[in-house]
Amino acid sequence: MTSMKDLFEKQDATFEESIRIDRKFEEDEDRAAHRDQLYRHYLDTYHITKASENYLKDFFTRIHGHDEEMRKGANHWLYGYYGSGKSHLLTVLNLLTASADLEEEDREEVWNRLDSDGSYTELFETWSSMLDEYRLVPLPINLLKYQSVREQSFSEIILQAVYQARGLSNRLDVAFFEEWYQNQGTWGQRDDLTKEILQAEDVPNADQYSWDDVQQYRILSDLVLEELVERETGTADGLADIQRQDIGQRMAVEAVEAYRQELEAKSEKPVKIVLLVDEVTLFIGGNYQRLSELNALAESIDTIGDGDIQMVATAQSEIEDVRPGLAAKQLDFGILKDRFPHQYHLPSHHVGEIVQRRLLEKTEKGVDWVESEALTARVHPTSTFVYSEVGQNTEPPLNRVDEDKFVKFYPLLPYQPALFLEILSNLRNELADSTKSIFSGTARAILAIVAGLRDRWMRDEKKDELSLISLVDFYDLIQYELEDIIPNEIEVLEEIEDDEDTTEFDLKVAKAVLLLSYVPDSVPQNDANIAVAVMDDLNGQPRTTVRNQVQNSLENLDKYIRPNTAEDGPLLRITDREEREIIEEARKNRENPDWDEIIAALDNELWADIRPRLNLPTSVPYGGDGDNYPISYSFSIDGQSLDGADEHESALEASVVIRGVRPDIDSKKINEGTIYWSVKQDGLDDLRSQLIEWWSFHKATAETETPDTIARDVDDAAERVKSKLASALKDGSFKVESQEPRGLESAVKECINRAYPSFFHPVMLEVDQSYLTELKRLSDDEEYPEWAQKIDVPRPDAEVSTMGTIAKEVRGAVGRTLVAHDNEMGLPALFEKITEETPFYGEVKPAVTAVLWGLCRAGEFRPVAEDGEALAADELLTLSQQMEIKLRTAPSSTSLKEQFIDAGIIEPIQTVDEGIVALEELNESIKRRARTLTETTEVSTETELENDALISLVAAFSNTLSELADAAESRAEAITADDTDWEDVIDQVASDEEWISAVEERWESREPYLLQLDGLLRFSELEIEWLSQSFYDALNQLTQQLNEESGREWWTQEGWQSFDQSLDARLTAIAALEEDWSAQVAETDAKSLATDLEGHQWLIPPLQLPEHSVHDGFQSGYLRPLRHFRDTHDDIQACVSALTNREPGTHDERALKRALGTVSSTTDWDSLTEDRVDTYREKHETVEQLVGGTRPDEIEGVGVLFGDESALKGQFERIVKSRKPTIEQVDGGVVIK
Questions:
Q1: How many C-beta neighbours within 10 Å does residue 482 have?
Q2: Superkingdom, according to UniProt (predicted)?
């Protein structure tokens, strides 16, 4: 083949413009010739398919009205992708429903242009009969032309089409004016008036303009319309009202219906409008408002058109897929689907077929050349240019190339159009509004792109004659469009191109990786597939060679292309700026490693995972008890400590120094009780390199939020370091002082044996507060737990000679310290001193405490409080309280223990310390109880009793109690002194404890007696009408008897008996009071009235009464007096009952104290007189007459004239307005119902 022009049938890459329903042709004055031109372009070229036949038949039937058994609705949804012919079919429908044009043509001849072989005679009959019965008027609308202009609604566009069909302007503001102006008398003069107005406005060449120009140009309509309105109405203000229309879906459909009726009035046949709307989905795009508007528009067509208006809308997808981004609006999609009950699918031609047929059709010579040259080239296309591990495949397939198809598609590969289409579709989804992309009609875009690729391929002189169009060529063609869609990724590729360290091949690889990342489900980004994507020379290198180049290129591009760590999606991804900055920073770190930082990072990030891999012994045997004990480890690497926390806090500690990791440290120093662990020398350089590699990335990402891809690399590097260091240590060597143990376990045993003294046991590390609490719960004769025995805690009867090594060591250290400090020292200071002598005591303080506890119980030491008060040994066992405890050396205490036992203070098995503590506690109890009872009696004299003689008697008791408390306080000092007379103190404590116990009981039982006496004597100060003289005489006698007993010690048993016998007037007074109360109640019958008022529903607390209905006059005149009587009667009844009890006890104390409050001048004693009781009874009867049987919330209002007149009047007026009242007269008032 000598020239590229001999290869293709079409010499240029142009292709015929898509069919559009509003496509304009140069109009011929001869209408018949113009129609012939339309028929030739659209009818002659249309091929009826099964899908289009079904649609036309269905549509004609519905227009004809023969759809009784079909689904109702006047809206049709015709959908199919690019190449399906939906716009062509809509244009055919436009011609087949234009009755005005068809009436001038032979109907059969027109049909034959569509159906040249007569295959659809039945469809013809349906169409023809439809035209016989109806006059059809199509209104074609191409929505694509409205995409790039200002935002317009469906309603506005339809109105423009209707007005234009009526001969009015397609500018709605002018059309609205014309609609009004047609009814004015000067409508027929509009051309002349236009010229006149324009001349008056000094418009050049005014006589050349007509009304048609006013319809078209805003500058003219702004001048003419306002003047015409002013001439017709007298004012120009009306123009705004004429042009201001509430445009909506209903208005648009009503305009269509008005146009239809206008035509039908002039027609002999019924008229039907066919609204043909092309590309609704592209017009809707991402605008949900338009989707909602289409729904309302379709609804109006159904309701207003009533079958006389039919709408056909074309779309690229089913209704459910109108806009996937609106998935949350599923309910509205359901409504839209109901509005378009008739959906018709037109199958599309495959994009590859369209591309091949329109752009790649070969000449006969071209076919021969491809077969003889391209198919026999060095790189065989059918076996080389195929993708591997293909997932979601295309048609033709990505993993197979057919020779015949290769010939047809050359220089493209057969699967490339479909692959390009998939890439563009997914790229389009990157946009917020995918409909705004140049790839919105992706199949159409592929046609244009392949045309551009073919053109470039033919003109590229640099390419070999046997070259192919590659994925890289595809990228280069759409690069500028990609800058708008994925600007960040394109910026990275530009950076690769400018990078001095990258090659032209690296850039090709990056382009292929980028595009393949948008089809991860089809073509994985493995080395082989990237090689296929960049190859374009049939005489070039084989795929294996290119694949190796791809691998090298990806390594060189690691700054720009990284593995994708997401669970799904592409294998590789283009890095962002943050990733690239981290990678560059890591490179700088590798060039200058800081080993202090490296080891610190290793400690913080990796050491916790490395330690488990070392198989460290978790326990070792210690001493001769046969048990193993846990071990904790402290590590350092070449002198740099590791801070990793050990899981064994209370364990033996082995100190381990790891040597040989750092290249800058070479120490030979040996410390006691330390394991020196040297790493294996083989592979040490590799270990250090891996450490530096990991640390470089770790440091670079320390202060940033690490991208997933970088994080994965850091994790992988960390894993390599963990494995390498663990392996180097396992194969290393050990040294403990002068020994070189074989194996880690032997090294640890040797270390522990050399690190701890003989007076130590590992259990001491375990002891904490819970262990000490266990000791506190032991009874005196109970065996010690095993742990206490292991650390030598002494028994109470232990001798020094029988104590264990640990106990002897602690005894000696504590004893020496106490002797050096006057035989007494606070525990905190004591622990500090013995820890200075033996440092590890500071680590095992709870264990040392347990040993001290045993030593105190054995009589070696004595715990005391800050003030010298003796404490039980158990006080030592609460660690948080040791700040307040001192320790003393203990004297001999055999005789003292016997005294405690004889006095019953301790049991024989208890210790002297426990006896001293018990004595102190008992003495303190005496003091506390005496003080408490003193305060109780003082409260009685100060707040409860009023009689002077009674107050004097109780005060004498209070003084005696105070003296007892003071004596106990003095004894407390004696108990803590060094020269205490124990026999005397013990006798005093025992005697005082017996006395206080006795008087506590007597006060509790005799206080009610004293309260009753005070209550009776208070009547002496009151003059109550219904109390007899005999009662007052008895009170006078009782007062005299009480005064004579002022010096009596009534709190003793003998004193109380004499005191009670001398007050015989008490019982006389009680009998008189009882008799007087019974007589008064019988005379007035007050009891029956009080019973009637008990629980009365109108005598509830005032605040609980309805404020709006129970008025103040009624409350103060009736309810409040009755409530007062009832409460006063109850109080006096309870008072008399309490004061006439002949043997008051502790259970009567509350009633007596209440009685004391009642016996006063504030109590209304006269309310129980006969006259007062009768008055209360009359009020009760009146209340019962008025509101008896009703609850307060059941009445509208109750009150007393004239105090409540205003409120009652308002309520009465409301009753009269709403219903007819009845008035019932009762005693004391009226009841209005």
A1: 17
A2: Archaea
